[in-house]
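Hey, resending since the last one bounced:
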Amino acid sequence: MRRGNVHVVLMAALLLMATACGQSPGDPRGPQSADGAQTLSISAIPDQDPQKLQRLYGTVSDYLSEKLGVPVRYVPVTDYTASVTAFRRGDLQLVFFGGLTGVQARSQVPGAMPIAQRDIDAEFRSVFVANTESDVKPITDVAGLSILAGHSFTFGSDSSTSGRLMPQYFLSEAGVSLDKFTGQAGFSSSHDATAKLVEAGTYQAGALNAAVWDDRVKSGKIDTTKVREVFRTPTYHDYHWLARPDLEQQFGAGFTQRLTNTLLGITGADDRERVILDLFQAKKFIATKPEEYQQIEVVARSAGLLR
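The structure tokens again:
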């Protein structure tokens, strides 16, 4: 077979593969299901156990699909940066971002809109924890974080709001820069990992999402004889649902508002809604707006995490 014919055959094969996946190369309409229907692709930053995230967002996908009348699929991502990149490219259309990743995503996708947050996200906190064999005792204010100087320390993901950005900000307020720790500061893969690393004594102290800490303590997944809470930070806005600006083009006029109303309408009225809220560690979703993340944006720019 001549080279030109081989090229034609290969191109045809690629087109068939793309069609089988429900999307033509370069299709501006976004992902489609096998029957050609537009598919809403959702995701979230991988801040917890992947199995829990799969269970949570699988349930959310089914719920949204039923309420909105469109196919919805959950697409897991490998890390925080990947979630922002996929959102920018349009591979993801709705993402439950943290405060920092949400601000980063909006800076790369003009017109992207935060449409809802959990009730707990309006007054979110990080928690500092320490191994019980260390000399780090509970403190009562931000200034007390100075006790962490001279100890080994781990954050969560380097793009985590509650596991890195805000803890580092409060540490700086106490005069503790990264070079004040013993050895190099660590960056674990998730909040769960941070808690376990400190529990195991790999690091003497660390910082993580307070909601995750509370949930793991309550469920007995944290050994509080080995790791203890040291301090809860002042509050800040954090996680939120961020929608791409082209949803109307893909799903029709008014879709973004329908989506917003659907999320805000999860009140725990039936068993499935109660499961969703329980997995989100929330009582309800509430409205939000870009201005609520201004503090995150300012801190991120000062830390060099936002261009």
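The radius of gyration is 22 Å.

Sorry for the duplicate.
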